[in-house]
Design a protein that fits this description.
about 1000 residues, alpha+beta, nine-stranded antiparallel beta sheet, 33 strands, about 35% helix, globular
């Protein structure tokens, strides 16, 4: 139902040929309008009351922007230098614009090249804005001395403060207790602890100068007309909005030396050198950045040589407490498009909390009134306008900003993208719920082809039509002005980014497809039989073998609190679990949908990938008809599924969607909102949370500053020994590898309704090779120490023979004979000691998964007789058997039985068929057998192992009840398996 205007006002009848009859009553404005909605939009856009803010705005309880003031932000901006339009820059700009595009190769092997934008090309300058030659050294700056720990006295003080406040998150009382015990231990020697108490520690942290962007606030109160003598409570309430200056926050990001090599300064187009296909990856590789640069130069040619800084925003309500009464907060985050996707996803402070928005609440009686809904919407947009106000002028006139490489550059900002789920997108774009915020498709038929929404189209129809027509025909809430209307070149419909988490994982997969399957089973089999089938599906999911990063559902899927991680975990195993219980077209629907999800989640998307995305979407639309034909659903006009149509266009605009997913902001909720909230005393918690965030930012900035100056090399202990002239050797026995540490950590994990079986690690190391496998440092003393004992433990008496032939193959790699045909007398014999290991680490390049800033990831391959006190765990791996072949044709699958240095005992799997299964899209394997039905055991070098593989039983081909089958029995119980290409994104990319 569309909102209704004041009943005391008459609404003019809309006629196509009527003449304007409503004048604008602002002094000096001669505009006339046909209806009230056009007049309202005009006044809020061109005569806004919330356009300027006094310095003491936070103390003004009046309506938004009811007091005008001078623009104090302009006084703080660096003006465009005097030479900005002189002959030097003007001539250079024109010459550069006329130059033919030149290609620049990047990365090893000259496999990829880029064309950079010739106009906004991020030229270096000094602090006065004077351009420098390309080879000029950075302008001189006052260097800090290498041992200046200010405000800390030394490294120990900083490390302790960072450890207690950031890593341990110790409360004030516990800090005092620890320092008191420490002080007591030093009484005899006359020493003192590094801090006297928690107040002393907090005072030192607060004195940190770097990374300090102070928090400000303003208050908002309704100041409209009260229509009766009993006004609604929300009309008299005062709402606080806390924020940090986004301009200063961006300055800190740009000046962070840790980001210097992780920033893209210039818009570019990237191509594969082998076929000239376009590639999309980071934000600056998209068309939006290039077109925005063209538009800025077209509007003002004097901006040539500047650096475009795309501003990325994100907001989403989050709940921090449910058990003790629901407590919600509304954080606002900021990042910039120059930061690469891997850095933004690695949570390295490239996404910054800049505000807490107000959340008006009222009584049930007034919660659904049009006036309250309208106030909430306009409060949201007006708050964003106020918070972002400092960016308005430098969106038109470049300012001079210091970067992490110690050069200055002219910077011009632009509102680029907004990360939000569908409910937030509805609010942002001022549209009616169930309509699309990106296109004009009618909500009854969203999949029809329609034009894209735009700011210009929206303004035009608002001037032409009344509110009801806007609501019913265009899905527009016509009496709300988007915050983007207050900023140059900003279009909220264009800014809304794809959201893999809420549109695809939580929306399309869990809320739609999984629900449709359950409804289908009830519709076909009846409720009683359907529940039996669903129980069997749950048992199949629970029986899946363990795998790094795989989420387990030991009690099935029927629990209330579903998270995004739960939905991601279910996606990885659901196809195999439902196969045989549903028609093949249902399985094909899931396959097409999952392939779409995994393709758009890739770190690099090519033109070929876009073709595959279109094909997957087409197949999904075709196969999902099975649900409508069965009478399970009536319409596919669902906004979150419809959003899939816009992904190819948005990829071209913004680059790979994994850098703009709401999973980034949801992860930030934990660090910036939920964990700080738990550290408060719950009384006026927001102020405490803001102070905690400010201290965390200061500690992070201080660590980056000290690291840049080389002051944090080594550890506190190693540095102390170095100062004393002492050196100490740590043996492998004392300090085990990270792999072994992971074993210990895993054993302490609490198993809940769903939990991650075995988490991998992200690495910030540069990519040296695609993949490498290493063993843990600590071997197992309780296991076999020679080959004979190993054969007895494994129950494979032919192990000594297999080892001899393996050694022969290592010594004579050019021998083409079948190893079994080689006489044993030609093979070397080994009778020495061996060491058995339970774990190995596989490090590989997997930028599409959660990885470090360079795309490296580490996982753990287990071969141990007892895992978590439940049973044995012997993982499967991909073995490279033909380095020249692509995908699965160059790989084989094997199960690790034992790992010895530098080799592994494995049980091979054989392929079933010469390609993937046509229904599920996954390859099928079975345990390999030799003559007399003996297991096909081999010994391989660990260098031939690529990474871990995950297999799921082909349940539909087995007459085995999964009831009672535990995950560690899976590989031994079933006799055919799918190679699970949905185990993670890297597996999906290599198992084609």
């Amino acid at each position: 139902m569309p909102p209704v205007r004041d009943p005391g006002r008459s609404r003019p009848t809309q006629r196509a040929d009527c003449v304007p009859q409503l004048p604008c009553d602002e002094p000096g404005c001669n505009r006339w309008f046909r209806n009230l909605s056009g007049l309202t939009q005009h006044k809020r856009t061109y005569h806004p009351s919330f356009s300027r803010y006094p310095e003491g705005f936070c103390n003004n309880p009046g309506l938004l922007g009811s007091v005008e003031h001078e623009d104090h932000v302009a006084d703080r901006l660096s003006p465009l230098p005097d030479h900005a339009s002189d002959g030097y820059q003007g001539e250079d700009l024109l010459d550069r614009e006329r130059e033919a595009m030149s290609a620049k190769f990047i990365g090893p092997g000259s496999k990829v090249y880029r064309n950079y934008h010739p106009g906004l090309n991020a030229r270096k300058c000094d602090d006065r804005g004077q351009f420098l030659p390309d080879d000029a050294p950075p302008p001189p700056r006052a260097e800090k001395v290498p041992n200046d720990w200010n405000p800390y006295r030394n490294r120990l003080e900083f490390e302790l403060a960072d450890f207690l406040f950031t890593h341990v998150e110790m409360s004030a009382k516990k800090i005092d207790m620890l320092l008191e015990i420490w002080a007591a231990s030093l009484l005899e020697s006359g020493g003192q602890p590094l801090f006297m108490n928690h107040a002393d520690l907090y005072s030192v942290i607060d004195s940190t100068r770097v990374g300090n962007v102070r928090w400000e606030n303003f208050t908002i109160q309704y100041a409209g007309e009260e229509r009766n003598n009993d006004p609604a409570p929300w009309m008299s309430n005062v709402y606080d909005v806390w924020f940090r200056d986004p301009r200063e926050v961006i300055h800190n990001i740009l000046a962070n030396s840790g980001f210097t090599d992780e920033l893209d300064y210039v818009p570019y187009h990237e191509y594969d050198a082998s076929n000239d296909q376009r590639r999309w990856q980071d934000f600056m590789s998209g068309d939006w950045a290039w077109e925005q640069a063209d538009r800025i130069l077209g509007d003002d040619p004097t901006t040539g040589g500047a650096t475009l800084v795309p501003v990325i925003l994100g907001s989403d309500k989050t709940t921090v407490s449910v058990a003790t009464g629901q407590t919600d907060y509304y954080p606002l985050y900021l990042s910039i498009g120059n930061v690469r996707n891997t850095v933004r996803r690695a949570h390295r402070n490239a996404v910054v909390l800049i505000g807490f928005l107000a959340m008006p609440k009222t009584t049930r009686e007034h919660a659904s009134t049009p006036a309250f809904r309208r106030f909430k919407r306009q409060l949201f947009h007006s708050s964003l306008t106020r918070i972002l106000h400092s960016l308005c002028r430098p969106m038109k006139v470049p300012e001079t900003v210091l970067f992490g490489d110690n050069y200055y550059r002219h910077v011009i900002y632009a509102l680029a993208a907004y990360i939000a789920d569908y409910e937030e997108q509805v609010l942002l774009s001022c549209i009616v719920r169930n309509w699309c915020p990106k296109c004009l498709a009618h909500h009854d038929n969203l999949d029809e082809n329609a034009l894209r929404r735009s700011r210009e189209h929206c303004d035009t129809v608002i001037e032409e039509f009344e509110l009801r027509k806007l609501w019913e025909t265009y899905g527009i809430v016509g009496d709300i002005v988007p915050f983007t209307n207050d900023f140059p070149r900003a279009d909220i419909h264009q800014m809304l980014s794809p959201d893999i988490l809420h549109q695809l994982i939580k929306g399309g997969f869990k809320d739609h497809l999984v629900d449709w399957v359950e409804r289908y089973l009830v519709h076909i089999h009846g409720k009683s039989e359907a529940e039996k089938i669903l129980d069997d599906i749950d048992r199949r999911i629970a029986a899946v073998a363990p795998f790094t990063g795989l989420r387990r559902f030991p009690q099935g899927r029927h629990f209330k609190q579903w998270t995004g991680d739960d939905s991601k975990g279910l996606m990885k195993v659901y196809i195999a679990a439902i196969e045989g219980h549903v028609p093949k077209d249902v399985v094909r629907t899931f396959r097409a949908f999952l392939e779409f999800c995994y393709l758009v989640r890739r770190n690099v998307i090519t033109e070929q990938t876009l073709t595959e995305i279109d094909d997957a979407l087409s197949r999904f639309h075709r196969f999902r008809e099975v649900f409508r034909n069965a009478g399970v659903i009536e319409t596919f006009s669902l906004p979150r599924q419809h959003a899939m149509k816009h992904y190819p266009y948005l990829i071209r605009q913004f680059g790979a969607p994994n850098g703009l997913c709401s999973s980034i902001t949801e992860s930030k909720h934990v660090k910036a909102v939920k964990r700080p909230y738990r550290r408060t005393n719950r009384f006026k918690a927001l102020g405490q949370m803001i102070l905690i965030n400010q201290r965390l930012d200061k500690l992070t900035a201080a660590r980056a500053d000290f690291q840049q100056r080389g002051m944090l090399n080594g550890t506190c202990l190693s540095k102390a020994f170095e100062v004393l002239g002492m050196y100490i050797h740590f043996s492998d026995e004392s300090f085990d590898s990270d792999c072994h540490g992971q074993d210990a950590a895993d054993e302490g994990d609490e198993q809940t309704a769903s939990y991650e079986e075995d988490a991998g690690d992200t690495l910030d190391d540069p990519m040296a090779i695609n993949a490498h496998v290493s063993l843990t440092r600590k071997y197992q003393r309780a296991h076999a120490k020679n080959v004979g004992a190993l054969a007895a433990e494994l129950g494979v008496p032919e192990i000594p023979t297999i080892l001899c032939r393996f050694l022969h193959s290592q010594l004579h790699p050019t021998d083409t004979r079948n190893p079994e045909d080689i006489p044993l007398y030609e093979c070397p014999f080994f009778d020495g000691k061996i060491r058995v290991y339970n774990s190995a680490c596989s490090t590989f390049f997997a930028p599409s998964d959660l990885s470090g800033t360079h795309g490296m990831r580490r996982e753990y391959i287990r071969s141990c007789p007892m895992w978590r006190n439940e049973g044995p765990r012997y993982d499967c791996v991909f073995v490279v058997t033909d380095p020249q072949a692509d995908g699965m044709r160059g790989l084989d699958v094997a199960r690790i039985l034992w790992t010895l240095f530098p080799c592994a005992v494995v049980h091979w799997f054989d392929w079933i068929g010469d390609g993937p299964d046509t229904t599920t899209g996954m390859w099928i394997v079975r345990p390999s057998r030799r003559t007399h039905n003996l297991r096909n055991i081999a010994i391989i070098h660990i260098d031939t192992i690529y990474r871990a593989a995950h297999l799921i039983p082909v349940y539909s081909s087995h007459n085995i009840d999964p009831r009672g089958i535990k995950p560690h029995h899976s590989y031994d119980t079933f006799h055919s398996f799918y190679v699970n290409k949905y185990a993670d994104h890297h597996t999906f990319e290599i198992t084609f």
